[in-house]
Amino acid sequence: MYICPGLMDQGRVILNHDQFQLTIERICQQLIEEFDSFDQTCLIGIQPKGVLFADRLHSRLLSILGIPAIEYGMLDITFYRDDFRIRSKTAEGQRDEDALSGRWKERFAR
To answer: According to the model, what pLDDT value does residue 88 have?
Structure first.
């Protein structure tokens, strides 16, 4: 896991594979303690990079809990960022995942 592109060029590793796996495991255990059955919970990955992290959490949660599904989706907040209009490069949005059920789409559409 790298913090920023500048560090990648230097090859500085913030968390090695085992440390990253342990971090995922700990976060999953905390989420399980907080949300238990996940029946009233939706896991959202923020496009683009947060989706990669959310994918890992989602997969591990399903494995730990042994349940068939946890509501999961992706959300693009590009056009809601406070620095959207001051960037030199025009921001391009990404497609929100259609995997969310109606009740969750209604909450995020507001």
So the answer is: 63
Q: How many domains does the chain have?
A: 1
| Residue in the block written with tokens 């907080």 | 34
Per residue in 13-71, pLDDT (tens digit) is 899 999 999 999 999 999 999 998 888 889 999 988 899 999 999 999 999 999 999 99
Q: What CATH number did the domain enclosing 29 receive?
A: 3.40.50.2020
Structural domain including 17 reads 5-108
> Among 40, 46, 58, which residue's Cα sits nearest to residue 97?
46
49, two tokens: 């990079």
- What phi and psi, each to the nearest 5 degrees, are found at residue 13? -95, 125
Is the pTM higher than 0.85? The answer reads: no
Phi, psi values for residue 43, rounded to 5°: -90, 125
Yes or no: say if 69 and 62 are a contact pair by the CB < 8 Å rule: yes
